[in-house]
């Protein structure tokens, strides 16, 4: 085991020893550690992660929202591209259940310890109907705009945030565009009306179109098929 991996293993062990009693779960991945924290314990745990001698996570690098409603349920919805080799693993039990996920939304935090040269991911699941979690702006001031972005795009509310307003969409925007049930083309479109001399909102007129990534393969399987087709045409 190299030094980098050993530091991650030691961090995971320390997190388990310290926070197991707080209902936290430690997940170890390839060269990364994730700490899943109950929403009610976030401020208490986050404060110790910043100030505790064993952790010293002085910097918050990012806060983002996640919508797990479709995670692991199906292949990527990419039309014919999926058949060409673009796919993902499926959680068979979740796909068979076909019901709303109890833990749909989560706030995810990425921390950096400069003094100990370590990184850590925090994940906090929130209630699907009323996604509310405490703000960590009082612990890491850099969370201010990140939490506003998660609120704007996912509708996650951060209790105690000093100025929780939309930051990327328009002030009159309706809905949260990064939620999985939000239409790709949006709900409305806007344009400037010269006669009324103001911006107007109208129903979307864009035709739905496939936005999935295309997978184009250039190997012997497809070259042989192309040659056979060409030979048949020449005959």
UniProtKB/TrEMBL annotation:
Chloroplast listed as a keyword: no
Chief site of localization: membrane
Subunit organization: NDH-1 is composed of 14 different subunits. Subunits NuoB, C, D, E, F, and G constitute the peripheral sector of the complex.
Species the sequence originates in: Sedimenticola thiotaurini
Domain NADH:ubiquinone oxidoreductase 30kDa subunit residues, every copy: 36-187
UniProt subcellular location: Cell membrane
Bilayer disposition of the protein: Peripheral membrane protein
EC number: 7.1.1.-
GO cellular component: plasma membrane
Identification of the protein by name: NADH-quinone oxidoreductase subunit C
InterPro entries (UniProt xref): NADH_DH_suC, NADH_quin_OxRdtase_su_C/D-like, NADH_UbQ_OxRdtase_30kDa_su, NADH_UbQ_OxRdtase_CS
UniProt cross-references to Gene3D superfamilies, sorted A to Z: NADH:ubiquinone oxidoreductase, 30kDa subunit
Broad EC category: translocase
Keywords assigned: Cell membrane, Membrane, NAD, Oxidoreductase, Quinone, Translocase, Transport, Ubiquinone
């Amino acid at each position: 085991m190299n030094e980098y991996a050993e530091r991650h293993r030691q961090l995971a062990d320390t997190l388990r020893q310290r926070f197991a009693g707080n209902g936290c779960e430690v997940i170890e991945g390839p060269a990364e550690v994730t700490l899943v924290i109950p929403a009610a314990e976030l401020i208490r745990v986050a404060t110790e992660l910043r100030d505790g001698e064993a952790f010293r996570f002085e910097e918050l690098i990012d806060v983002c929202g996640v919508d797990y409603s479709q995670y692991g349920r199906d292949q990527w919805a990419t039309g014919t591209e999926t058949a060409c080799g673009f796919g993902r693993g499926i959680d068979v039990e979740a796909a068979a259940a076909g019901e709303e996920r109890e833990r749909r939304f989560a706030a995810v935090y990425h921390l950096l310890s400069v003094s100990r040269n370590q990184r850590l991911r925090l994940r906090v699941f929130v209630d699907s109907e009323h996604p509310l979690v405490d703000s960590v702006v009082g612990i890491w001031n850099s969370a201010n705009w990140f939490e506003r972005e998660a609120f704007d795009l996912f509708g996650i509310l951060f209790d105690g945030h000093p100025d929780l307003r939309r930051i990327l969409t328009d002030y009159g925007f309706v809905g949260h565009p990064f939620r999985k049930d939000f239409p790709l083309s949006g709900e409305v479109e806007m344009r400037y009306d010269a006669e009324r001399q103001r911006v107007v909102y109208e129903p979307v007129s864009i035709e739905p179109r496939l936005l999935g990534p295309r997978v184009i393969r250039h190997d012997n399987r497809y070259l042989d098929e192309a040659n056979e087709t060409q030979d048949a045409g020449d005959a």
